[in-house]
Amino acid sequence: MVMFTATGFVGPSVGPVVGGFINQYTWWRWTFYVLIIWFAIDLVLIAPAGPGDVPPRAAAELSPEAAQGHGGRKVDCAHREHGQVDLADIVTAMRRPFELLVFEPMCLNLCILSALLLRIVYPVFGAFGVVFTGNYGLSSRSWA
User: Fold this and answer.
1) What gap in Å lies between CA 5 and CA 52, rounded to an integer?
2) Does the predicted TM-score (pTM) go above 0.85?
């Protein structure tokens, strides 16, 4: 899980450097091949370690109505699976991310870090075209 999580934070800083080396010494499509290979490695390492799903809960734990919902037999489902969602559930689901930002300092710090990284990295990516076409006289056709 550390490798998977670190990919999102290390990627914006290491990605352009690795991509630059790949594009300098190989064909540009190898940038995407390396991304696919990295994803496959992540998948192979994480898939066996992660839980497949949340263990099923009895419908009686969710509510007595759900337990008797199908002719008296017990079913393993929630109200959401039958389209019975009320406004309180929707408001709770929409409020939860903001509660995490306010009450969890680590979550707030990681969001600020991601915002700063993306604020720095994306303008740099946009400048590549301007620099290489204006300063070096390359066109987008010469990159393909």
Assistant:
1) 18
2) no
pLDDT tens track, the chain, 144 positions: 677 777 777 877 788 788 888 888 888 788 899 989 988 988 888 777 766 554 455 444 555 554 454 455 544 455 555 666 778 888 888 999 899 999 999 999 999 998 998 888 888 877 877 887 777 777 655 554
CB atoms near residue 38 (< 10 Å): 14
What is the spatial distance between Cα 107 and Cα 101, in angstroms, rounded to a whole number? 6
135 to 27, 76, 116, 121, 138: CA distances (angstroms): 22, 64, 28, 20, 8
Burial 39-69 (b: 16+ CB within 10 A, else e): eeeeeeeeeeeeeeeeeeeebeebeeebbeb
- Sequence-distant (≥ 6) Cβ neighbours of residue 89 within 8 angstroms: 79, 80
Token pair listed for 22: 């790949």
Residue recorded with tokens 């550390």: 2
Query: How many angstroms separate the CA atoms of 94 and 47, rounded?
Result: 29
CA angle at 23 for the pair 21 and 28, rounded to the nearest 5°: 150
